[in-house]
């Protein structure tokens, strides 16, 4: 039995972690952390836990929490964990962090994209990026796992097969992304109010969205050379879900590639990846087919007229893009079946 603490349990990501762990028969949740809700029961703070989980949220130091558990899952704001995490804590337990604090290996990127100076360089170097489908072996031995962001998860899994096979021109990658409102978190913001979001679609974070650096890091690691992309996210008036539509030119020596060839590349790349479903014949993924699940649906469509490919993906930003992937990382790290507590299919309608 693995003892787990969840810090930031009342937010969207943290509450989904707790909800999933309710069905994990190899895990005991021993601590729920929260700042503004300390002293309240989780069932009072979040009505979906009423009469199911009566644990009281607390606000102990990270060191105190580490003495109680085998794993801490932190669903906290960026720049929170980086200031308080140190090696002594990692000697006591595994930490899986849902924030961006340990995702980017180049510390200068934190100044550029997150506007803070990363001073925890030793742990940054030791952290393991937790994209389970591409980094399984390292995750199994990690003490600090940086849970990937939602856009980077979906973008990377959508593009990786063709990138690894050197089929696309890496200078031509354009990613059009759309996300539900929960991706912005639970705190009140003017841009996320109902009347601001309802019946409206808008682009945001043009040119310098925070996840640009993370996506470029992932794609560069796969291609084994530096890659820059054009990435434009959009806010969609729905609660949850991410849809990626990415475009790239074919390399000239693949001008005669067929749709069947592309499908086979994706199926072979993901043949043993339980949580990635390859839709054939260029079938466009839909967010409703993954909502509430840990699945990623990917697809590729040949645009022979323009000698391009369209690479598509869909995830639930709160599950595969956050909490579900954190549990997937926990399962890998502690030797459980990778899909334990994560087998739910999407809710429909």
In short:
With 349 residues, the chain is of the alpha/beta class. The chain contains 13 helices and 13 strands.
Report on the structure:
With 349 residues, the protein is an alpha/beta fold. It folds into 2 domains: 2-126, Rossmann fold (3-Layer(aba) Sandwich); 151-317, Dihydrodipicolinate Reductase, domain 2 (2-Layer Sandwich). Helix content is 30%, strand content 19%. The protein has 13 helices and 13 strands. Strands 8-9-7-10-13-12-11 form a 7-stranded mixed sheet. Strands 2-1-3-4-6-5 form a 6-stranded parallel sheet. Helix 1 (12-21) crosses helix 13 (319-333) and helix 9 runs parallel beside helix 11. The radius of gyration is 20 Å and the shape is globular. The model has no long low-confidence stretch (mean pLDDT 96). Pfam families: Semialdhyde_dh, Semialdhyde_dhC_1. This is N-acetyl-gamma-glutamyl-phosphate reductase. Pathway: Amino-acid biosynthesis; L-arginine biosynthesis; N(2)-acetyl-L-ornithine from L-glutamate: step 3/4. Catalyzes the NADPH-dependent reduction of N-acetyl-5-glutamyl phosphate to yield N-acetyl-L-glutamate 5-semialdehyde. One of its GO terms (cellular component) is cytoplasm.
What is the structural class?
alpha/beta
Q: Which percent range describes the beta-strand content?
A: 15-25%
Distance between the termini: 35 Å
Quaternary organisation of the protein chains = single chain
CATH-assigned homologous superfamily of the largest domain: Dihydrodipicolinate Reductase, domain 2
Q: Roughly how many Å is the radius of gyration?
A: 20 Å
């Amino acid at each position: 039995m693995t003892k787990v603490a969840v810090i930031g349990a009342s937010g969207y990501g943290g509450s989904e972690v707790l909800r999933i762990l309710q069905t994990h028969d190899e895990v005991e949740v021993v601590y729920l952390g929260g700042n503004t809700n300390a002293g309240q029961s989780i069932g009072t703070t979040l009505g979906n836990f009423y009469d199911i989980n009566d644990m009281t949220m607390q606000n102990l130091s990270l060191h105190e929490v580490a003495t109680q558990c085998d794993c801490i899952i932190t669903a906290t704001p960026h720049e929170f964990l980086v200031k308080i995490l140190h090696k002594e804590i990692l000697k006591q337990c595994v930490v899986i962090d849902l924030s961006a604090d340990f995702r980017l290996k180049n510390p200068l990127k934190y100044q550029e994209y997150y506007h803070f100076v990363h001073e925890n360089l030793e742990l940054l170097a030791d952290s393991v990026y937790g994209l389970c489908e591409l980094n399984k072996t390292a995750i199994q031995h990690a003490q600090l796992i940086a849970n990937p962001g939602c856009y980077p998860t979906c973008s990377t899994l959508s593009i990786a097969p063709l990138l690894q096979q050197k089929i696309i021109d890496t200078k031509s990658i354009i990613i059009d992304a759309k996300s539900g409102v929960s991706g912005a978190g639970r705190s009140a913001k003017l841009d996320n109010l109902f009347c601001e979001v309802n019946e409206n679609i808008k682009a945001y974070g043009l040119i310098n969205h925070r996840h640009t650096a993370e996506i470029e890091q992932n794609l560069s690691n796969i291609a084994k050379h530096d890659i820059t992309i054009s990435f434009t996210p959009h806010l969609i008036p729905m609660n949850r879900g991410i849809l990626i539509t990415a475009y790239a030119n074919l390399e000239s020596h693949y001008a005669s590639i067929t749709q069947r060839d592309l499908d086979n590349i994706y199926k072979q790349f993901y043949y043993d990846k339980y949580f990635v479903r390859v839709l054939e014949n260029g079938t466009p993924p839909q967010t409703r087919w993954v909502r509430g699940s840990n699945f990623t649906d990917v697809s590729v469509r040949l645009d022979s007229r323009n000698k391009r490919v369209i690479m598509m993906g869909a995830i639930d930003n709160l599950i595969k893009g956050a909490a579900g992937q954190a549990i997937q990382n926990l399962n890998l790290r502690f030797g459980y079946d990778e899909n334990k507590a994560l087998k739910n299919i999407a809710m429909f309608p």
